[in-house]
Design goal:
Strands 11, 12, 14, 15 and 16 form a 5-stranded antiparallel beta sheet that branches. It is built from 1 helix and 16 strands. The termini are far apart. The relative contact order is 0.17. It is mainly β. A hairpin with a 2-residue loop joins strand 9 and strand 10. The chain folds into 2 domains: 88 residues, Immunoglobulin-like, CATH 2.60.40; 108 residues, Immunoglobulin-like. It is 9% helix and 47% strand.
Length: 227
């Protein structure tokens, strides 16, 4: 009798497993870019603790949110989603917030966002000058809040930024900036030779953070230099 019960239990488990396996696999996806509505350039991001996209699938009483962090170049892609209607929300942006929107995802769907970054890093230049890495740039604010800080970040990985750096040169501003002022930040190479080893290549990136709670830095594209 005991053996019969074990056999019956195993059969029930096998049937339940088969039912689960019969569900359709995710066959749809959503991808796109965050584009500066004034310049048509992609809005540079942080891949670690950066701006997030929240997906809320319709048709469930208590739907669970799915989250995705944007890539450094301002693009995103989730190729394993179920075809359905979704609400898309953006959290902790480095641009003026946009309203949630609903979208029907069928197959591989594209959705681009036109946004206004809090700050545009303009006329950016990063060069090696003697024993220093020197960055010069201007800032164009698109909101009235103070610019909290600016920074020059260095890392061996091209995804360098405020949250991913070996070396940083930062300056607290806490002020509204003059769009004509040229800012300069420097990294002294001999002082940082333990992290930036001579003869190797590193990626350098300029960032600026607006004084708005939960916001993320705005960036110019990274530059690769040998030190």
């Amino acid at each position: 009798m005991k053996k019969l019960q074990i056999i019956l239990l195993a059969s029930v488990i096998a049937l339940v497993s088969c039912k689960k396996d019969n569900y359709d696999a995710p066959s749809a996806g959503l991808s796109g870019k965050f584009i500066d509505e004034a310049t048509n350039e992609q809005v540079q991001m942080d891949i670690i603790r950066g701006t997030r996209i929240e997906f809320i699938e319709h048709g469930y009483e208590n739907p669970q949110s799915q989250f995705m962090v944007l890539k450094n170049d301002g693009s995103y892609a989730n190729t394993l989603m179920f075809a359905n209607a979704y609400t898309i929300k953006i959290s902790e942006p480095n641009f003026i917030p946009i309203a949630p929107q609903d979208i029907e995802i069928k197959g591989q769907t594209t959705l681009d966002f036109k946004v206004t970054p809090y700050i545009r890093v303009k006329d950016a230049s990063i060069v090696k000058n003697g024993n220093k890495i020197v960055a010069t740039f201007k800032l164009q604010q698109n909101v009235i809040n103070n610019v909290q800080k600016i920074g020059l970040y260095a890392h061996a990985d091209s995804r360098v930024g405020e949250t991913m750096r070996l070396v940083a040169s930062e300056q607290n501003l806490n002020a509204v900036t003059d769009p004509n002022h040229v800012y300069t930040l420097e990294i002294d190479l001999p002082s940082n030779s333990g992290q930036l080893k001579p003869g190797n290549n590193y990626h350098f990136r300029i960032g600026a953070l607006i004084g708005i709670g939960g916001s993320k830095p705005n960036y110019a594209p990274a530059v690769k230099l040998g030190v």
